[in-house]
Amino acid sequence: MRWLIIAVMTLGMTGCGGGQHDDLDQFVRDAGQGMRGKVEPLPEVKPYEPFPYEAFNLPDPFAPRKLKPAASGGGGFQPDLNRRKEPLESFELEKLKMVGTLEQNHVIYALIKAPDNSLSRVKVGNHMGVNFGVITSISEQEIKLTEIIEDSAGEWSEKPSSLTLIDESNAGQQKK
After folding, report:
1. What pLDDT score does 32 carry?
2. 100 class by beta-carbon count within 10 Å (0-12 exposed, 13-18 middle, 19+ buried)
3. CA dist list (Å): 62 to 25, 55, 67
4. Which InterPro entries match (predicted)?
């Protein structure tokens, strides 16, 4: 009986190993025939030519430096650097807000709100902003200033600026 079971199983196994994938095996054998690979020739390698570096005497382009002053010798105006700074000169002009005006003894004052929420009263001639801004005129809607700015060559130039009245309820914009 054992021999009969073994014989039947062997016969069944040989039936499973037939040509089920013969077509796939034939395709793989035939796929590579007639194909010839073509490899492009390598490009010609140019010989190395050394380049002499002769820029040792030039200034370092990444080092911070100021340009040399113009031939005018830096004449002209500049701010008084020895003057005692006023409280509003520690803030950038863009961060200061004009919130109102008032008049006392025929002098018009502007009310300025600083980023630290302090309120200051200024008049024509006062300074404000980090660029040595001097108030030149005050109206009910605007403060006009003249800032003194140093360029990269060390020359000072004047720049007109202004601060407009901010309506806190509408969160209006100021201009410079």
Report:
1. 77
2. middle
3. 67, 14, 14
4. PilP
Assessment of whether the complete model's pTM goes beyond 0.85: no
Which residues have CB under 8 Å from 77's CB, separation 6+? 148, 156, 158
Q: Answer yes or no: CATH 2.30.30.830 is held by domain 93-164.
A: yes
Higher pLDDT, 38 or 160: 160
Helix (H, G, I), strand (E, B) or coil at 90: helix
Chain CA centroid to CA 15, Å: 75
Q: Do 119 and 75 form a contact (C-beta atoms < 8 A)?
A: no
CB 120 within 8 A of CB 131: no
Percentage of residues of the chain with pLDDT beyond 70: 82
Q: What is the pLDDT of residues 131-174, one digit of tens each?
A: 999 999 999 999 999 999 888 777 888 999 999 988 765 554 44
pLDDT tens for each residue of 56-73: 888 777 877 655 555 444
129-136: which pairs have CB atoms within 8 A and are 24 or more residues apart? Answer: 129/88, 129/89, 129/91, 129/92, 129/93, 129/96, 129/161, 130/89, 130/90, 130/91, 130/92, 130/93, 131/93, 131/159, 132/79, 132/89, 133/89, 133/93, 133/161, 135/110
